[in-house]
Specification:
single chain, Cytochrome Bc1 Complex, Chain D, domain 2, 47% helix
Length: 221
Amino acid sequence: MRTRTSITVSAPRRGRRARRALAGGACVAALLALGGCRQDMHQAPRYDPLEASDFFADGRASRGLVAGTIARGQLRDDPALSTGKQGATFVSEMPVEVTRDLLLRGRDRFDVYCAPCHARTGDGNGMIVQRGMKQPPSYHIDRLRAQPVGYFYDVITNGFGAMQDYSAQLPPHDRWAVVAYLRVLQLSRHADAADLPAEDLARLQGGEAAGAPHGGSSTHE
């Protein structure tokens, strides 16, 4: 036969529990009250873009840039490098070192942005010209071969005639890379064999000698 055991809680213990519950509830209520009183961190005063303001003399909330402010990476302290000009004259010398890496970069950018119109050979018969667009002049004509490098940099930067500018697509260093490669294309059709390194000249002459029996004079019927 089971007997039931009852536990009797003394009055002082019940009182302590009640006081703890009451204190906890009061703390929660106080925190909620404090959180609802001030919303400055959540609803800070602000101006929307282009909103009017009576604080500034010009009545505008949006402020202009501080005079002389230059965006990171946009410093243009070398006119020849950034414009292709010295004063009003196009520069005739490359303001960057011409290396193999620069020429390879120039070829890559030329093939992407220039070849669709100018063709990869620079003769102006690119794919979109073959589709009916206006044909640009060949880079190999005397007029363009005589132009200084700064001229081509300026055209890439500002556009010319029907050609848009490519300043957004090509940063200054890439524009000079394209100009350097363009000079390579021009030289490719007007190079003098005497300008070749001795090793390459010997290879060229050896090839010509080897091909003489097949490329000599012949009689046409």
